[in-house]
Amino acid sequence: MPRRFLPFVTAALLSVVVLFTPESGVPTAPPGTDKVVHTLLFALLAATGLYAKVPHVLILLVAYAGVSEVLQAVVTPLRRSGDWLDALVDVIGIGLGVVITTWLRSRRRDRRTSR
Fold first, then answer.
1. Can you tell me the distance from the alpha carbon of 15 to that of 38, in angstroms, rounded to the nearest whole number?
2. What is the pLDDT of residues 46-61, one digit of tens each?
3. DSSP H/E element including 8
């Protein structure tokens, strides 16, 4: 497996921990913190997935956003609730990851052409 996959695999494993930790293991935080965490987590997944050149990564991440919320709602031992708003901020995070990746790539291109 190429090294460029390692950040994505790490981010994916982190997402499983964050999204599927039972409610009893989720730390208390100020209201809205979970939305920030969802946004940043999916931005990280998108950026590292694009870096790894995972085929169809953006479509897969949108599906993962929805499926993860459904699973949180239906998997009884998790004792978590699915939230469509979490899925929405996941998709916003994916967009943020695309913007960040695009910006970083353009900066890298600019540095190469200015030499």
1. 9
2. 999 999 999 999 999 9
3. helix 6-20
